[in-house]
Amino acid sequence: MKDTYILAIESSCDETSIAIIKNGHKEISNIVLSQMDTHSNYGGVVPEIASRMHIENITIVLEQALKEANLTMEDIDAIAVTYGPGLVGSLLIGLQAAKTLSYVYNKPLVPVHHIAGHIYANNLEKSMEFPLIALVISGGHTELVYMKEDYSFEVIGSTLDDAVGEAYDKVARVMNLSYPGGPKVDKLAHEGTDTYDLPLPLDDDSYNFSFSGIKSAVINLRHNEEQRGNQLNLPNLATSFQNRVVEILTKKTMKALKEYKVKNLIIAGGVSANKGIRERFSELCVQENINLTIPKLEYCTDNAAMIGAAGYYAYKLGRRADLDLNVKATDKLN
Ligand code: KG4
Ligand code: ZN
Fold first, then answer.
1. Burial level of 194, CB count in 10 A (0-12/13-18/19+)?
2. pTM: predicted TM-score of the whole model, two decimal places
């Protein structure tokens, strides 16, 4: 059978990335230009700066992706692009590049939802097995998704307010840790003891999540301790916060696996780099005989390889977009 090469473009936040993926599995090239250092000066991603930097970087990244793959545009079967959700100004740069390539080289344009990409990061090392439950945890998303088969997404729960990564970054700020604080809180959490009485976030029967309550609890805690003239014990606070987050994520995910009678779990998104989350899920999945897959770290954060993996299945299903495709800041996973 003829090989299928997808050229994929991802620019939904602060990474400019272009990848070439063969047959939905094999990374031929994956160039990721992160703007993290620039945005960390501002304590978070500044949308206007992000889109300007995407403009500066996109052609450089494209040239490098083709060069590293040793391919030309003639070898490419289709262009997959993240059309949303994400920052509108950032998405527009990737989409415009994708449309231009599609028009100039007469290649089909395949729209990919960013979360589908995060999920399909798990297909880059070995094929995903179905049915599965996907837990997507990133700076912008917290979603539990049931997949009966390839490219069929049933969102069974999501966050009602802050995403997990967002909560980590906000709690990190309260602890005076620089952006992005998630990895720093994770590191500290392994150095402390769970001494702070923080609430378990949205501990109900649904598959939804809510992290704004625990974030407010941390803000109030700092305020109260300051009033009393006490110093916060940062490692202990990080441990208490992380334990609550891990407990609620594992509780709802393990329940979904039981209820949906599913034996395959995949975890995706930037927060799946979290050591505490990886460790606890690994333990529970061994106990419950669940087949757990978490992408390697470079595929956890935003990258175009995952968009190319998802794009391959979207392409095979005949999903196409016209040149009037627009970006979407928010959109249902489909
Ligand atoms: O998937 P991603 O690169 O971007 C989005 O699509 O949002 O995720 C970035 C998020 C940030 O909030 C960052 O703090 C968080 O992932 N993150 C972590 C860890 N590594 C990255 N959060 C907790 N623990 C980590 N080790
Ligand atoms: Zn992402």
1. middle
2. 0.94
CA-to-CA dists, residue 167 to 66, 90, 163, 262, 280, angstroms? 37, 22, 6, 29, 19
Check if 139 has its Cβ closer than 6 Å to any atom of ligand 1.
yes
Is the per-residue pLDDT at 306 higher than 80? yes
| φ/ψ bin of 247: left (φ > 0), alpha (ψ from -120 to 50), beta (otherwise) | alpha
Q: What is the helix, strand, coil percentage profile of the chain, to 5?
A: 45, 20, 35
Cα 276 to ligand 1 centre (Å): 13
For tokens 């956890």, what's the residue? 300
Q: What is the pLDDT of residue 130?
A: 97
Pair of tokens at residue 263: 């034996």
Q: What is the pLDDT of residues 113-154, one digit of tens each?
A: 999 999 999 999 889 999 999 999 999 899 999 999 999 999
- 318 sits in which H/E element: none
Q: Is residue 303 in contact with ligand 1, taking CB distance under 6 Å?
A: no
Strand order in the sheet with 154-158: 154-158, 142-147, 132-137, 264-268, 291-293
| Ligand 1 centroid to residue 271 C-alpha, Å | 4
Radius of gyration of the chain (CA): 20
How many whole angstroms separate alpha carbon 102 and alpha carbon 168? 38
User: Is residue 183 lining ligand 1, measured as CB closer than 6 Å?
Assistant: yes
Among the ranges given (31-45, 67-81, 101-115, 256-270), the one the predictor scored with the smallest mean pLDDT: 31-45
Counting from 1 in the atom list of ligand 1, the atom nearest the Cα of 187 is: 26
8 Å CB contact between 203 and 248: yes
- Is 185 in contact with 238 (CB distance < 8 Å)? yes
Q: Which residue has the tokens 């794009």?
A: 311
